[in-house]
Each structure stands twice: as structure tokens, then as C-alpha cells.
Amino acid sequence: AGENFEQTPLRRTFKSKVLARYPENVEWNPFDQDAVGMLCMPKGLAFKTQADCREPQFHSFIITREDGSRTFGFSLTFFEEVTSKQICSAMQTLYHMHNAEYDILHTPPTNDKESCSSAGDCNGTSVSKLQRFNSYDISRDTLYVSKCICLITPMSFMKACKKVLEQLHQAVTSPQPPPLPLESYIYNILYEVPLPPAGRSLKFSGVYGPIICQRPSTNELPLFDFPVKEVFELLGVENVVQLFTCALLEFQILLYSQ
């Protein structure tokens, strides 16, 4: 995905696609496959090996429609081992091509045999380049690919959705199966757990423990289910105070982020 061919294959991004969705149709929320795929994996599909960090990552997003209505998405991205031999072989081939192109671009155009003290030195240079850039070996490394599970909701219950996704992922990766079939938990969250009434909280059972979501009443501040601590960690105290001042003075505020 993109023209980042100068990067090594494991540092490139690849096009993602939606593998499955449930339910197939929701009247109040028609499914946009391209938008959801892009928002779940904004940087595209990624590959890693056992040497890379593969901790699950959580993020949220908003889909705003033409009529101004909003739906909220919550995505947990994790890495699964690639079991397809064809994909592993394709990654190995990409690395061979990348190394060959690198050698062509960086080999000095000379036929002077005296530039190397011996044939062994020249071969040694080539081998060191190969070791430097051939960071995936099909016979030695385990290849992993990114995958994500996502919940799309009418309200921004971030903490509850994060717990649901984390517990579902734990159930899939745990050596012990969950108490009930995984489909029953998904059915429960989609069809049996209602939205809490305004001013009330709701407690329901997850795969491994209870999950609570709260909804403010009509005379309280709107729902903002995100930890303010992260804002201070990302921006710092001075910037947060300045941002708050600008909001009170009704200045236009632009947040720019990668």
C-alpha cells in the first residue's frame, strides 16, 4: 500500500481487507467496508517476525455520515502467526529482490580487481550486506501478520468496548477454551445488552469478568469515556492549559497528528 519500496519488506505496509463482519446488515448503520478497513488499519497491513514487539494495540475512531450522524469504532490490533507457506515464500522472495536492488544501487562501477585485496574480502562485503538487510529467513524466522477485531457502536463507550475486545482476544489466544462458545458472547453483546438509560449505569458479563458502562443524564456533561491522563501525557501540562484557554476564549483549534 503506497510507494515505500525503498523500505525493507517487513517495514512496508500492505493493503488490508475486511475478512468477516456480523451481522451482515444493520438498518441504522450501513456497513462501509472501505472506510472501516482504512480506519481499523490506517497504516495498512503489517508483517513482523519473532524479533519485533507484537503487543496488541487499541485505538478508537469516528465515522461521520453525510447527515451528520456519528457512529463510534473501537479496534484492537494484534499479530497472528502466518501459516501459509505461499505468503512466507513471497516474503522471502521480496527480500531477495530488495537485497539484489540494494547491491546494484550501492556497488561502485569498477572492474578493477585490485579494489579488493582478495576474492574473500569482496564476498565478505556481499555477505555482510545480505546479513544486514535480509532480516527474514524462511528457515529461521517466524512470520506474523496484523489482524484486528472491531466493535462499532452508537455511543462512545470506550472503556467497556476495550474490555470486550481484550477479553475476546484473550479467549482466542488462551490455551484453555472460554466457559461458553465464543459466538455466544458476541451474540450477547450485539443483541442482549441494551444501551443504559440516561443517568444510569449498566453491568453485564464479559468472557472473563463483569463489564460496566455508564451514561450521563441529560443535565450532566456529555459522555466522554476517555482517560484525561493520556491528554496530559501526550501534550504536557502547559499545552493542555493553553488548549483549555483557547477553548474558553472560543479560538479556532487545529490538532495535527500522524
Average predicted local confidence, pLDDT: 84
Fraction of helical residues? 25-40%
Q: Give me the count of strands.
A: 6
State the strand order across the main sheet.
1-4-3-2
Q: Compute the gyration radius: what is it?
A: 25 Å
Low-confidence stretches: 115-134
Number of helices: 7
Largest sheet: 4 strands, antiparallel
Q: Strand-and-helix sequence, N→C?
A: HEEEHHEHHEEHH
Distance between the termini: 17 Å
Overall, the morphology is globular
Give the DSSP E fraction (strand runs of 2 or more residues).
15-25%
Helix/strand/pairing category:
alpha+beta
Write a structural description:
InterPro entries: cDENN_dom, DEN5A/B, DENN_C, Tripartite_DENN, uDENN_dom. The strands form two sheets. The chain has a four-stranded antiparallel beta sheet with strand order 1-4-3-2. The chain has a two-stranded antiparallel sheet with strand order 5-6. β2 (57-64) and β3 form a beta hairpin. It is globular, with a radius of gyration of 25 Å. Helix content is 36%, strand content 17%. It has 258 residues and is α+β, with helices and mostly antiparallel strands. The model is unreliable at 115-134 (pLDDT under 50). The chain has a domain at 1-105 and 135-154.
Secondary structure elements and their pairing?
Layout: H1 33-40, E1 47-49, E2 57-64, E3 70-81, H2 85-106, H3 119-133, E4 143-153, H4 158-173, H5 182-192, E5 201-205, E6 210-214, H6 228-235, H7 237-248
Antiparallel strand pairs: 1-4, 2-3, 3-4, 5-6
Helix pairs in contact: 2-3, 6-7
